């Protein structure tokens, strides 16, 4: 399909062809790319940096954001999920 030329392989397809460590959903290379890009996205998002202040959000909104976590977001959208931790 690619004529034996690795430089013609789409990056994502190439990453999906890489073997995954046991128990992981994707390869080590794709994980490293994800980690690098996630931190860059957060650093460049003005709502997490320069505009994360009461003049942009309300004080109540900032408190609500600080009070929540990934677990509370998931449970808000999927309240019937079993909880493997104490309530």
Automatic annotation (TrEMBL):
Record-linked Pfam families: An_peroxidase
Keyword Ion transport: no
InterPro entries named in the record: Haem_peroxidase_animal, Haem_peroxidase_sf, Haem_peroxidase_sf_animal, Oxylipin_biosynth_metab
Alphabetized UniProt keyword annotations: Dioxygenase, Iron, Metal-binding, Oxidoreductase, Peroxidase, Plant defense
Molecular function in Gene Ontology: peroxidase activity
PANTHER family: ALPHA-DIOXYGENASE 1, PROSTAGLANDIN G/H SYNTHASE
UniProt name for this protein: Peroxidase family protein
Organism from which the protein derives: Streptomyces caledonius
Lineage: Bacteria, Bacillati, Actinomycetota, Actinomycetes, Kitasatosporales
């Amino acid at each position: 399909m690619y004529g034996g030329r690795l430089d013609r392989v789409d990056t994502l397809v190439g990453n999906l062809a890489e073997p995954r460590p046991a128990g992981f959903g994707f390869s080590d290379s794709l994980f490293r790319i994800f980690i690098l890009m996630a931190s860059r996205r957060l650093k460049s998002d003005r709502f997490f940096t320069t505009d994360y202040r009461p003049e942009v959000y309300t004080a109540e909104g900032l408190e609500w954001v600080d009070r929540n976590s990934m677990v509370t977001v998931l449970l808000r959208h999927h309240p019937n999920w079993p909880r493997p931790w104490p309530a």
